[in-house]
Automatic annotation (TrEMBL):
GO BP terms in the entry: protein folding
Molecular function as annotated in GO: ATPase activator activity; protein-folding chaperone binding
Entry similarity comment: Belongs to the AHA1 family.
Protein name: Uncharacterized protein
GO cellular component: cytosol
Length: 162
């Protein structure tokens, strides 16, 4: 083996070679506004950059605020909702592959403008109706279905607002 080959086969031989024409690493100011890259709005948390799976819990107080914001309306008919109280409830905001889904199961006590109080037990995201109900109103079935639909719509509006 020649001396030249021994130098090249040595550990970190390339460090000995000097390159005077190194790349200039200093940042340059971007003049054109079209070249500036805006960060995309991320659906998942910072630690979950791929957005594969994430589950955030929603407690009873947060569910109460969601219903107050999206459910209570200002209509003038008898079925318009004045109050909504969460008797029991839990929920979670699930992010799967960059898409959000809201999961919940709640028991509600809803006060109507007509003075009626409706108790809906077991409203959840994956069923169209509730498990039990107590309605003190003449059109019980229609009112129950209408109120369950309004509750589901309120949760859907919340999910879309995220």
């Amino acid at each position: 083996m020649s001396v030249e080959e021994q130098k090249k086969s040595g550990y970190r031989y390339w460090v000995r070679e000097r390159n005077d024409q190194l790349y200039d690493m200093r940042p340059t100011k971007v003049e054109d506004q079209k070249q500036i890259v805006q960060p995309e709005k991320q659906v998942a948390s910072a630690w979950n950059k791929a957005g594969t799976w994430e589950d955030k819990g929603i407690n009873r107080e947060q569910i109460q605020r969601i219903l107050e914001q999206f459910l209570i309306t200002t209509q003038n008919d008898d079925s318009f909702i004045q109050t909504a109280k969460v008797l029991r409830g839990e929920g979670s905001l699930i992010t799967v592959r960059g898409k959000r889904k809201l999961g919940y199961e709640v028991d509600l006590e809803i006060g109507l403008a007509s003075g009626s109080v409706v108790t809906l037990i077991g409203i959840c995201d994956d069923e169209d109706d509730c498990e039990e109900y107590k309605v003190s109103h003449k059109n019980q079935m229609e009112l129950r279905k209408e109120l369950v639909k309004k509750v589901k719509n309120a949760f859907e509006q919340f999910r879309q607002s995220l």
